[in-house]
Amino acid sequence: MQYDRIWIDARLVTVNPASAGLGIIENAAIAAKDGRIAFVGAASDLPGNWSAAETTRLDGRWVTPGLVDCHTHLVYGGSRAHEFELRLAGASYEDIARAGGGIVFTVKATRAASEDDLVKASLPRLDHLIAEGVTTIEIKSGYGLDLDSECRLLRAARRLGKERPIDVTTSFLGAHALPPEYTDKDRFIAAVCDMIPVIARDHLADAVDAFCEGIAFSPEQTARVFDAARAAGLAIKLHADQLSNLHGARLASEHGALSADHLEYTDEDGAIAMAKAGTVAVLLPGAFYVLRETKMPPVEVFRRHGVKIAIATDCNPGTSPLTSLLLTMNMGATLFRLTVDELIAGATREAARALGRLSDVGTLETGKWCNLAIWDIERPAELVYRIGFNPLFQRVWRGA
User: What mean pLDDT is reported for the chain?
Assistant: First the structure.
């Protein structure tokens, strides 16, 4: 068997769902051909006649799938550091939003930025994530809130995938907040629904997202957005139950959403609906930490009902200015009491599932893209345990 590249003397964290735990294989090898995994398993199972154009001995280093950050707002203009100061002085997220800050403040800065400006501002954030082994990322719009600005933001996000060796999926988050030129939410939702066919036609988004919350949009308004997304052939995601329980998790599940995200206030009915629909729970400890929330997502309820759990940075300018998926995993352990196995799977396999990309990425299995993160660590738990430390030895994207 002829391979393009092979890594030997490795310890693999395959996260293969058919295996127990993290699917660890000691004394292993993994090989790539045409950018995809051509062999993964014990070195003793390699074909006897194998050869490779490039062979790398890893000296027992650990290999995981390339990390997947499945919920970010990476592309935006401006800064909201001043709001951080306001929160430290006692203002709440809702107070700031109702006073014209929050998302709307970023909308003004983003509308004023060109596509080139947005790409230039976003690349350093993306580079931080790449440096920690991220090989797939989701980027949402939602800071334009009119058709031209939303398209410009989504084009900038698509360009990032050409500027750097990374897979980018995009989500249209037009229903993020009420823009300043509107006073009626129903009228704006109608405008968002009109944007969706244009965005689908131009292949600018892979999914449609919305913010279902008292300070954003009602379940009924959100359902209208979902119906328009389905009509346009786009997948669905939802910011759900972050600040209150509007039964967003159940709503998302009833519409076949790939994921429901945040979920601090989700109840058992919502968890049951998610399990039934296969909707992934994407937990975002960065926002929980920055907003100093105290209501934890119902992790035990999710476990009891078999809801798949993913983890993501929620990188955004206001509530989670976080560009470290490794730190996010530590936060998931310390704040939400997730296990090491749940967190590593949550930043690989389940994050890929939350993007509808599990057939291509997220695990080390033959046929998938050869996206690898190779680590200088003694055991996988170190990826979650260490704080402010990056043990990445090598990152591989599509075999290179």
Answer: 97
CB within 8 Å of 294: residues ≥ 6 apart: none
State the Cα–Cα distance between residues 322 and 329, nearest whole angstrom. 12
Q: Please name the residues in contact with 89: beta carbons below 8 A apart, sequence gap of 6 or more.
A: none
3-state secondary structure of 2: strand
Contact 82, 33 (CB under 8 A): no
Using one digit for the tens of pLDDT, what is the confidence trace for 9-21? Answer: 999 999 999 999 9
Query: Considering only CA atoms, which of 171, 256, 154 is closest in space to residue 211?
Result: 171
Distance of CA 103 to the CA centre of its chain: 19
pLDDT in tens, 192-233: 999 999 999 999 999 999 999 999 999 999 999 999 999 999
CA 169 – CA 125 distance, rounded (Å): 16
6 bridge partner residues: 31, 55
252: tokens are 């998302």
Look at residues 282, 287, 292, 283 and name the one whose alpha carbon lies nearest to residue 320.
287
> Residue 369 has what DSSP assignment?
B
Closest to 224 measured CA to CA, from 183, 196, 200, 250? 196
The reported pLDDT for the residue numbered 3 is 98
Q: How much of the chain, in percent, has pLDDT values that exceed 90?
A: 94
Strand blocks (E) in 74-212: 134-140, 167-175, 207-212
Distance in angstroms (rounded) separating the CA atoms of residues 198 and 192: 10
Mean pLDDT value across residues 307-327: 97
Q: Measure the CA–CA gap between 194 and 384, rounded to whole angstroms.
A: 43
d(CA 191, CA 202): 17
Residues 6 or more apart from 64 whose CB is under 8 A from it? Answer: 13, 15, 133, 344, 348, 364, 372, 373, 375, 380, 383
Q: Which of 171, 153, 159 is nearest to 113 (CA)?
A: 153
Question: Angle at the Cα of 247 (from 217 to 254), degrees rounded to 5?
Answer: 95
